[in-house]
Amino acid sequence: MPRRDAANTSTLEAPDSRLLHALADVAADKGFAAVTVADVVRVAGVSKRTFYEHFADKDVCFLTLYRLASASALNTLRAAVQPSLPWQAQVETALRAYFSHLSAGPRLLRTLFVEIHHLGEAGAAARREVMGSLADFMCETVNRDRPAKQALSPAMAMAAVGAITELVLQAIERNEQAELESLVPVASAIVRRLAQA
After folding, report:
1. Average pLDDT for runs of 10 along the chain of length 197
2. DSSP string of 145-196?
3. Using CA atoms, how far apart are residues 195 and 147, in angstroms rounded to an integer?
4. Distances in Å between the alpha carbon of 175 and those of 55, 110, 180, 195?
């Protein structure tokens, strides 16, 4: 049986979590394009009928996995915020927790960050949704105690999220998922500079 990235998939709480875990395992081993529903149900230990009771196809299963894993990462960001600190320190603390969360599941991280680009418009829509949630979180955190005229705009927040996502993708390409926390200084600097623009 393939090795599970327990650090990130263990947080998936759904009646179909066995299928989500199985898809994550198989996709990490052979790439999403090569995954079949038969692979997923074999690893999950369920029938195809059970799979189709929950998902229309493997794409829908993957999009569910992507959204749940992304929500888990966002929850980690939210939990790391310490409102008593200046916004700059809050951003740095949240980014450190976020990168630590991502690096705890390197196989799942590669699957989600890379494979989502291969799901066409549905994948692009899910990615935009997740990036929008991250940008909203950034605006909330940075703007909590700042005057409105100094607020980080939604467009600048999205620019920061895009830049940070690209840094993560570069780390994945270099097989440096375990060192994501080293990105905290540059990611924090990106947010600070865009917040002052």
Report:
1. 41 69 92 95 94 95 94 93 91 95 90 90 96 96 88 95 96 94 96 89
2. TS-GGGPPPHHHHHHHHHHHHHHHHHHHHTT-GGGGGGGHHHHHHHHHHHHT
3. 12
4. 32, 9, 10, 30
CATH number at residue 172: 1.10.357.10
The two three-digit tokens of residue 60, written as one number: 């829908």
Structure tokens at 107: 């196989």
Domain count, the chain: 1
Q: Determine, yes or no, domain membership for 162.
A: yes
Residue 47 lies in a domain: no
Q: Is 120 inside a domain boundary?
A: yes
CA distance 150 to 90: 17
Kindly tell me the sign of the dihedral angle through the C-alpha atoms of 63, 66, 72, 78.
negative
Residues 6+ apart with CB under 8 A from 78: 94, 137
The answer to whether residue 164 is domain-embedded is yes
**pTM of the prediction?**
0.86
